[in-house]
Write a structure and sequence with these properties.
It contains 12 helices and 19 strands. The chain has about 400 residues and is an alpha+beta fold. The longest helix has 23 residues. Bound molecules: acetyl coenzyme *A. The site of acetyl coenzyme *A has 23 residues, from α5 and α9. Keywords: Fatty acid biosynthesis, Fatty acid metabolism, Lipid biosynthesis, Lipid metabolism, Transferase.
């Protein structure tokens, strides 16, 4: 049914025919030993520990039922830190200028976490707004996907968001790490959970605070990034109403050399005895290096791969370019956005861009821009959006979706 590069289909309607589920799946894994012979059976029931400990076994708690679902985008929200840093502010700390930054990137301001701000709190705020728009209670959320490369806990931030939202039924919550492609991967993952796993309401949050990993003395990178969070609620619906028409996902580890923030061992940390140092044990404590980027290579990669990916997703959906109401790319650089739009022949008035105000907010950039476009009335129910993320990994991917 689904594979890494999308639901192959020459047209939306034939894609729907092909999407008849073929493998039995429970939350806990593959169900059917006879593999492809059966339909998808899932549990829509979520049991908290208190319920399970009251006697019912996990398997008893699950009510098998046929799943033949679509999914649609029904809510969005966003949040950004209050501290605004302009290009002129940056010109006071590195050798740059408003003119250089705005001409080369389109960025004029960015928001940066400061003081007691937390990325998790931004993610919670964005998620709450998405739930309000969707008119879904936190208790009815059954999956939280936090797409971030900068969690505030090494083990992931999603469970903290689940807790802060007050989802009392202990829904599954986990992080997805794929840099600036994270939100698109989260969207596709959410759709797979709904279509194949029986989930009903999935929160997909994109949130990053790359300002914490920027070398603020490096004018080549520090001008680009900002912090923010955005969220959407993806909801199960009848397959006829399905709003994720196709997707196309890729990664290329070879390109990691062009963009990374790798782990490094702290130098001043031989506290735990020295007798093991010959063996290199115990290891020194580690942290992450600041972002290293070959901007020109990343630029070339984006301009080459993103149009191909969107074109591929359109072909899988059986849709012409002219069916795109909005082109919504990861907000990295206005010149990248313009070049991709030109290659796809999408006119400027159908391109969504807000990076002048926020810079590159990594996994947050797409849901943040979507939220602004929906709330300003630009994007309306029924509009078709071609969206694409790209960045470190290298990773890139696109999805053709319908809003509402
Ligand atoms: N201010 C003034 N001059 C600068 C600055 C600056 N902030 N930064 C670089 N320069 C100088 C350079 O030193 C160089 O000077 P030189 O010619 O004397 O050597 C000159 O400007 C040109 O530098 P380039 O790096 O070649 O500039 P370029 O036109 O490539 O623009 C930029 C740089 C904006 C970073 C661009 O390459 C870019 O946007 N690349 C894509 C980055 C991106 O999209 N990343 C997304 C992924 S992020 C993620 O996944 C986490």
């Amino acid at each position: 049914m689904a594979n890494a590069s999308g639901f192959f289909s020459p047209s939306v309607s034939s894609w729907r025919r092909r999407m008849q589920p073929q493998i039995g799946i429970y939350r806990s894994g593959l169900l059917s030993p006879d593999g492809f012979s059966s339909r998808v059976f899932c549990s829509s029931t979520i049991q908290g520990p208190e319920k399970l400990s009251s006697g019912a076994s996990p398997s008893e708690s699950r009510v098998p039922r046929l799943v033949n679902k679509g999914c649609k985008l029904v809510g969005c929200g966003s949040a950004a830190p209050t501290l605004k840093v302009s290009n002129d502010d940056l010109a006071k700390i590195v050798d740059t200028s408003d003119e250089w930054i705005s001409v080369r990137t389109g960025i004029r301001n960015r928001r940066v976490l400061s003081g007691k701000d937390s990325l998790t709190a931004l993610a919670v705020e964005a998620a709450r707004k998405a739930l309000e728009m969707a008119r879904v209670e936190p208790d009815d959320v059954d999956l939280v996907l936090m797409c971030t490369s900068t969690p505030e806990d090494l083990f992931g931030s999603a469970p903290q968001i689940q807790k802060a939202l007050g989802c009392k039924r202990n829904p599954l919550a986990y992080d997805i790490t794929a840099a600036c492609s994270g939100f698109v991967l989260g969207l596709v993952s959410a759709a797979c959970h709904i279509r194949g796993g029986g989930f009903q309401n999935v929160l997909v949050i994109g949130a990053d605070s790359l300002s914490r990993y920027v070398d603020w003395t490096d004018r080549g990178t520090c001008i680009l990034f900002g912090d923010a969070a955005g969220a959407v609620l993806l909801q199960a619906c009848d397959s006829e109403e399905d709003g994720l028409f196709s997707f196309d996902l890729h990664s290329d580890g070879d390109g990691q050399r062009h963009l990374n923030a790798t782990v490094k061992q702290n130098e001043m940390n031989d506290v735990v005895g020295s007798n093991g140092s010959v063996l290199g044990f115990p290891p020194r404590q580690s942290s992450y290096s600041c972002i290293q980027m070959n901007g020109k290579e990343v630029f070339r990669f984006a301009v080459r791969c993103v149009p191909q990916s969107i074109q591929s997703a359109l072909e899988k959906a059986g849709l012409p370019r002219s069916s795109i109401d909005w082109l919504l790319l990861h907000q990295a650089n206005q010149r990248i956005i313009d070049a991709v739009a030109t290659r796809l022949e999408v006119p400027p008035e159908r391109v969504i861009s807000n990076l002048a105000n926020y810079g590159n907010t990594s996994a947050a950039s797409i849901p943040l821009a979507l939220d602004e476009a929906v709330r300003s009335g630009k994007v309306k129910a029924g509009h078709t959006i071609a969206t694409a993320g790209f960045g470190a990994g290298l990773t890139w991917g696109s999805a053709i979706v319908r809003w509402g």
